Amino acid sequence: MYAKYDEIVTIDIEATCWDNKEEQGDQIQDIIQVGVAILDVPTLKITRQGEMFVRPLRSSISQYCTNLTTITPQQVAKAPIFGDVCHWLKEQYCTIERPWASYGDFDRSLFQKQCDDMNVRYPFSRDHINVKPLATLYLGLNKSIGNFKVAEKMRVPFEGVQHTAMDDAVNVAKILAKIIERMRK
Length: 185
What we know:
The protein is an alpha/beta fold and 185 residues long. It is built from eight helices and five strands; from the N terminus they run βαββαααβαβααα. A hairpin with a 4-residue loop joins strand 2 (31-40) and strand 3. The radius of gyration is 16 Å and the shape is globular. The relative contact order is 0.20.
């Protein structure tokens, strides 16, 4: 199957997290929210977006995690499990057929690890775009910075709330659009 380059599927995740190793104990980090923004490559416009909570099976949401992400245990208690969310991504956003992007490598590596651990088919193509080093090069920085600061430096209006998967996916798609726009000049 050949990849389709008409759209880039931009992904952001939120995952269970803890203030320290002691609080984490023997819990394994789980993805608890997936945000998606579809970047139409010809127009560089975001054409679709979505998000889904994921019920964690190997960990619980700490107060630290709720403070960071605003996600509560009640919000994920009846959410779909990880395998069902991976299926949703493939069916709704054609993630196997299209390149996908994230800000940094954390989202890609956690998805891969959780798929491996839970024996779930990886829902993405091999064509991953790590926007973080591209943004660093675009801005001429000598070290990477977070997506909120990048948006500010690139004069890309940051929409929504940080650490909300769909809002972060939309903002990363907007950053990627600006990088692609410059590449076309």
